[in-house]
Amino acid sequence: MTAELLALDRTHGARRAAPEAVRAVEAVAGHPCPPSASGPDGAALAELFQVAAWILFDAERHGLSQRLGRRALALCRDLPEEERSLELLVLSVLSMQQAHLGRPDESLRISSSVLARGDLPARVAALFHVREARAHAQLGRRRDALRSLGAARELCADGPSAQDPPWAWWFDRAELDGHHGLVLADLGDADGAASLLHAAVESGDGPAYRSLFAADLARVLVRAGAWRDADTWLSALAETAPRMGSVRALNSLGRALGTVERGRRVPRGLRDTARDLTGLLGREIPPRDR
Hints:
- The structure is a single chain.
- By secondary structure, the protein is mainly alpha-helical.
- Among the domains are: about 1-85, no CATH class; about 205-290.
- Helix content is about 70%, strand content about 0%.
- It is built from 14 helices and no strands.
- The radius of gyration is 19 Å and the shape is globular.
């Protein structure tokens, strides 16, 4: 069940995968002989809850996502030491979710507590430095945010290693560039943010949720008043936006379009582009999927 959810999410994103994730969790809970959390099925159950929590986070269904994340975390902590690396993935999603929901203090508490362990594989440590950087940036701590980003870059310099857990495969250069760009956007560096987000988008194929970087690039350009670049980018998104599988991405794009439509001194051409794209999304994507 977990493998099927992962494949669906990677290819089509949370819009398609979220209903299946809910059904999978309900099927496990309602089974006449549910897997035992304390038995040999505990690791598989924790992984299912973690994957479902991640998908529901990207679908902006945060209440259920957080409940499943906490259940996964509790299961992980009862596993043998050699099977507990999944706990770090659960914590990384919970930290990112807190930042997404505007709770940087809680996000920072989670990421800093993990980094304090000191025995992390390099790529995992880099991931939590990125989470730490985003929280620092949201709190207005520019120096701390840049220091955390520098640490993440240094840890990733040598590429993947044999010590990295299997689940860390997705934390690659494109992922680092994208999150680096989001941190710079929070710090008010629109040019730096746009450059890194563009690099993340242009890096090639990746999981469906990475459409978030394309949507956030539009939001950064609009907020910076880079009207010509924003018009070019939004026009380019007209073909791909209806297929965005990430609800977070659709919401970010919607905020960018709303800023254009409500803004003052916005060129008429850009306003028309935003209106056309808004209408396209309205026709192509049911409200329940946004």
